[in-house]
């Protein structure tokens, strides 16, 4: 009898293991479609007025949340639907959910995010709720670096993701998706460190434990670059209800002209056309000479030589249409190869952000609308040729395609590109 009992237990254990493996394999089947589908989207704005953290306990300062609710109404969202968008990517700054100042308003913040989601859905648009950390500063204590560098803060962030997923869990999974972290700034060094896969698995587990039906939008490390997504093993995420995202603003020299927050080189660069061949060579030379003169006059002396050499190197990499095409195609080809190698369907890949700056905050230079429209059109063509969905950055602000600054409207050229697709 003891032998029979042992045999039964052994067979039962073996059967359990086989069944468990079958379940895991079923969950991890590559190539399956996500519940949520999307095609053409727009990123909404983050904070515009940037209230300091000392105001976050004031309901009038922080609610409704996110802040675009203070400016956009139902008809504004419906206009986006009519323009040809089918979804919006809605950035939600998680920092207030990690601040002691919001303790009394915490439930109101979660409820307001849910109200915002439903407002978008009522306008006939799907929505990706994007947990969008930004750097600390500007009156705030916690940002991307603090979350990534402090294990205690990361643990708190995981709980925010869990609670946000729980907040969204009851929504129609065909209308709402959840992105646990935007552009993780980790694993950017060339030392071979790989912290993000394990951290993303924790965020995935937290979100999935609370929202079993929602599609989750996952990404690679280091600003969600295509080269980082290539390093992700999707089989480590045992779930087929996932959409994978990458971002591309290539070539950065052209898309971020004048951006003061984008390193010590780009702020000196304005006036370059898209493509560089859009103007006669002599006109381009005048613009480049002006940039060089600005570097020599304003950059630290010790950095001038390096900045000037970098300018020449970057221009040489895109001074023909063929070279520029190669730069812009590279991220799409890399992601396409990664997806095919991992049997991920094209519709389960999205270009989560792309765009061209219109005007840097406080900078008088405004990028000609025709250049911006041409760039957006070319990036859309690349995404759709690969079968990827996309969402342009963004509704307003420096990259605005609808709103500019101070209540003004952006030129209609980029939106006209979207309308032409519709």
Summarize the topology:
Blueprint: H1 2-27, E1 40-43, H2 59-62, H3 74-83, E2 87-92, H4 106-122, E3 126-131, H5 144-149, H6 151-168, E4 176-179, H7 196-210, E5 215-219, H8 226-229, E6 242-247, H9 252-255, H10 281-298, H11 301-316, H12 321-341, E7 349-353, H13 369-385, E8 389-393, H14 413-421
Parallel strand pairs: 1-2, 1-8, 2-3, 3-4, 4-5, 5-6, 6-7, 7-8
Describe the structure.
- The chain has 422 residues and is an alpha/beta fold.
- The protein folds into two domains: 35-259 and 324-421, TIM Barrel; 275-316.
- Helices cover 44% and strands 10% of the residues.
- It contains 14 helices and eight strands.
- Strands 1-2-3-4-5-6-7-8 form an eight-stranded parallel barrel, surrounded by four helices.
- Strand 2 (87-92), helix 4 and strand 3 form a beta-alpha-beta unit.
- Helix 13 (369-385) packs parallel to helix 14 (413-421).
- The longest helix has 26 residues, at 2-27.
- It starts with a helix and ends with a helix.
- Mean pLDDT is 91; it is low at 1-31.
């Amino acid at each position: 009898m003891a032998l029979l009992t042992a045999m039964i237990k052994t067979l039962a254990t073996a059967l359990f293991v086989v069944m468990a493996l079958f379940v895991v394999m079923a969950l991890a089947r590559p190539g399956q479609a996500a519940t949520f589908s999307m095609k053409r989207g727009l990123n909404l704005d983050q904070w515009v007025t940037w209230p300091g953290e000392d105001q976050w306990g004031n309901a009038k300062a922080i609610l409704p949340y996110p802040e675009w609710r203070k400016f956009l109404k139902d008809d504004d969202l419906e206009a986006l639907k009519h323009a040809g968008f089918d979804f919006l990517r809605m950035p939600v700054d998680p920092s207030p959910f990690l601040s002691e100042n919001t303790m009394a308003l915490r439930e109101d913040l979660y409820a307001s995010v849910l109200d915002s989601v439903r407002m978008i859905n009522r306008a006939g648009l799907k929505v990706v709720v994007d947990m969008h950390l930004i750097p600390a500063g500007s009156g705030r204590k916690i940002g991307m670096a603090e979350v990534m560098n402090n294990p205690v803060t990361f643990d708190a962030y995981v709980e925010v993701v869990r609670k946000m997923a729980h907040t969204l869990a009851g929504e129609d999974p065909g209308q709402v998706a959840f992105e646990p972290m935007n552009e993780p700034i980790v694993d950017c060094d060339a030392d071979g460190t790989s912290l993000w896969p394990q951290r993303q698995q924790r965020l995935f587990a937290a979100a999935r434990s609370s929202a079993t039906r929602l599609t989750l939008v996952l990404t690679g490390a280091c600003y969600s670059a295509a080269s980082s997504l290539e390093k992700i093993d999707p089989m480590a995420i045992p779930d087929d209800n996932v959409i994978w995202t990458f971002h591309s603003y290539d070539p950065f020299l052209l898309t971020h002209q004048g951006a003061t927050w984008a390193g010590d080189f780009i702020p000196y660069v304005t006036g370059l056309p898209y493509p560089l061949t859009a103007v006669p060579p002599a006109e381009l030379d005048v613009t480049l000479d002006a940039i060089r003169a600005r570097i020599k006059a304003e950059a630290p002396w010790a950095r001038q030589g390096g900045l000037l050499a970098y300018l020449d190197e970057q221009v040489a990499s895109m001074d023909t249409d063929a070279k520029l095409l190669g730069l812009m195609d590279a991220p799409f080809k890399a992601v396409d190869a990664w997806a095919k190698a991992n049997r991920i369907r094209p519709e389960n890949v999205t270009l989560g952000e792309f765009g061209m700056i219109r005007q840097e905050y406080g900078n008088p230079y405004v990028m000609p609308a025709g250049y911006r429209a041409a760039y957006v059109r070319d990036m859309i063509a690349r995404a759709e040729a690969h079968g990827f969905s996309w969402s342009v950055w963004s509704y307003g602000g420096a990259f605005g395609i609808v709103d500019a600054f101070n209540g003004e409207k952006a030129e209609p050229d980029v939106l006209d590109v979207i309308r032409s697709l519709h």
